[in-house]
């Protein structure tokens, strides 16, 4: 639009509705740092900052892609005859202002576009967890831009745009069980497959380095998720409030169920387990919170907690190092929510917005909804898996864009290799300690023969230093030096390692 005559807009919108959408978009954006804190806490300390960086840059990539052509491909209003993807009529947000007066009566189109942009940002931020502790960041940014274009935008168009084939077929997906949850989980799992397993031993026993950050991240996610689901109605109405309550119920039952299962096995209450269950309940509520009954959410939360807890073992059977359990907590939970739409969706719940008509699911005798939901899940999962694999394969073959770091960089940690900064100062201090050694009571020589010109890694320096350290005796009486080694050197190893084993044996395991 090019004008120079002091044009004034005459369109008026409902102020409460516009504020509701903008507030919803803001809280969905607030989920991004929540994901960053969650992922950082779940990782080891030497890669804690890199995951926060990956999540934030995923958001930057998402916003750029959405403005560039993402919104046009996903929601172009002039592509109603195309059932697969939109067109480029709104390239660069061209003419995305107030929108069609017949469609956008109470809020402008740009408010809707901004709200949907945050959904893409959250999706890409979830996928960023796949890079944990071994993925290079630049290739991942390239991957995310391409993924948003050829995977997210088509599937968002399928289910949310009036011309999409899933929309016309009657698929029930309230806030993104397919485009957000299943897509992020499948893409993250495939990306993890191409990255391969982390090289360090005893992978199954690696523990989160900061459970407090895990709890903080989960709390922020829960807070943002409330309007992630409620504001999907785009107007403050009865359906948005119902979705708000369904989200809470599902999260509560998911968290309690997962925590009880873990307690049965460990006889201890797990904070990480509680947070994992809450997230599974929230994910399951994403496609269903605006469709199913409240008691349906009670059952859904319990089922999501049980199924997703046991689904964490899938990665071991498939031998894929899904470091942050994206498949179990987002993919499987998203499937649970979509299936519950077929079982417990009610026409009177869907009609609470005063606009949408749908026969619901089995609860209201619409039995064909089950195969519609299953076909939708299969189509989204299959398309995402195949296209993501192709993208990863091609990018990994491009010189300079290899997806994975080398072995030495992995041992040093992603913070040092990819960021050059650390989440904690003592990580850098500890690295220098083992690189240079300590001259105390003649037990350590300076650098133990290792200089900065050598190519030895931190672990090599540590192993060399350990050759002159005292070992554990049979009475478990630790010397001061050994106590420090026990507390710091191998904090990532399983606590089940017998304390009678010598330091040399632990070092051998770590290599």
TrEMBL record:
Keyword Transmembrane helix attached: yes
Localisation: Cell membrane; Membrane
Topological category with respect to the lipid bilayer: Multi-pass membrane protein
Gene Ontology CC annotation, any one: plasma membrane
Transmembrane segments: 16-39, 51-69, 110-130, 142-160, 180-196, 208-228, 240-261, 268-286, 292-311, 332-350, 370-395
GO biological-process terms attached to the record: nitrogen utilization
Region span, Disordered: 444-511
Ranges of biased composition (kind: Polar residues): 466-485, 492-511
Keyword field contains Transport: yes
Pfam families referenced in this protein's UniProt entry, alphabetically: Ammonium_transp
Keywords carried by this UniProt record: Ammonia transport, Membrane, Transmembrane, Transmembrane helix, Transport
Gene Ontology molecular function terms on file: ammonium channel activity
Start-end of Acidic residues biased regions: 452-462
Domain Ammonium transporter AmtB-like: 19-424
Domain of life, per lineage: Eukaryota
Annotated family: Belongs to the ammonia transporter channel (TC 1.A.11.2) family.
Name the UniProt record assigns to this protein: Ammonium transporter
Organism: Tetrapisispora phaffii (strain ATCC 24235 / CBS 4417 / NBRC 1672 / NRRL Y-8282 / UCD 70-5) (Yeast)
């Amino acid at each position: 639009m090019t004008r120079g005559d002091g044009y004034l807009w005459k369109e008026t919108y409902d102020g409460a509705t516009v504020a509701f959408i903008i507030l919803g978009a803001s809280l969905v954006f607030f989920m991004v740092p929540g994901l960053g804190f969650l992922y950082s806490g779940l990782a080891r300390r030497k890669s804690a900052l890199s995951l926060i960086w990956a999540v934030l840059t995923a958001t930057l990539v998402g916003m750029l892609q959405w403005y560039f052509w993402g919104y046009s491909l996903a929601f172009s209003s002039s592509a109603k005859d195309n059932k697969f993807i939109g067109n480029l009529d709104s390239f660069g947000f061209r003419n995305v202002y107030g929108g069609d007066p017949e469609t956008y009566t109470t809020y402008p189109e740009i408010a809707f576009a901004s709200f949907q942009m945050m959904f893409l940002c959250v999706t890409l931020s979830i996928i960023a967890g796949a890079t944990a502790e071994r993925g290079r960041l630049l290739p991942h940014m390239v991957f995310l831009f391409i993924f948003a274009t050829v995977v997210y935008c088509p599937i968002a168009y399928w289910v949310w745009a009036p011309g999409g084939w899933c929309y016309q077929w009657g698929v029930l997906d309230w806030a993104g069980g397919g485009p957000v949850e299943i897509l992020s989980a499948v893409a993250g799992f495939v990306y993890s497959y191409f990255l391969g397993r982390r090289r360090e031993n005893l992978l199954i026993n690696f523990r989160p380095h900061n459970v407090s950050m895990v709890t903080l991240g989960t709390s922020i996610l829960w807070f943002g998720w409330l309007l992630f689901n409620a504001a999907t109605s785009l107007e403050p109405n009865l359906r948005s409030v119902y979705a708000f309550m369904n989200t809470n119920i599902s999260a509560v039952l998911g968290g309690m169920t997962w925590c009880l299962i873990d307690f049965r096995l460990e006889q201890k209450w797990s904070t990480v387990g509680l947070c994992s269950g809450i997230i599974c309940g929230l994910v399951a509520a994403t496609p269903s919170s605006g469709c199913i009954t409240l008691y349906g959410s009670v059952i859904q939360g319990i089922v999501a907690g049980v199924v997703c807890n046991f689904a964490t073992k899938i990665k071991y059977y498939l031998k894929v190092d899904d470091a942050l359990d994206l498949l179990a907590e987002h993919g499987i939970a998203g499937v649970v929510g979509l299936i519950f739409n077929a079982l417990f969706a009610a026409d009177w719940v869907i009609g609470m917005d005063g606009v949408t008509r749908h026969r619901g699911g089995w609860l209201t005798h619409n039995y064909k909804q089950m195969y519609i939901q299953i076909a939708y899940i299969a189509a989204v999962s299959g398309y995402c898996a195949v296209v993501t694999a192709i993208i990863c394969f091609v990018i990994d073959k491009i010189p300079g864009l290899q997806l994975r770091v080398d072995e030495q960089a992995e041992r040093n940690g992603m913070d040092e290799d990819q960021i050059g900064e650390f989440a904690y100062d003592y990580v850098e201090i500890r690295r220098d300690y083992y690189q240079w050694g300590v001259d105390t009571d003649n037990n350590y020589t300076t650098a133990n023969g290792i200089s900065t010109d050598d190519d030895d890694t931190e672990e090599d320096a540590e192993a060399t230093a350990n050759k002159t350290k005292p070992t554990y005796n049979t009475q478990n009486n630790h010397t001061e030096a050994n106590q420090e080694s026990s507390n710091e050197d191998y904090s990532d190893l399983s606590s089940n390692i017998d304390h009678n084993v010598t330091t040399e044996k632990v070092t051998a395991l770590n290599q």
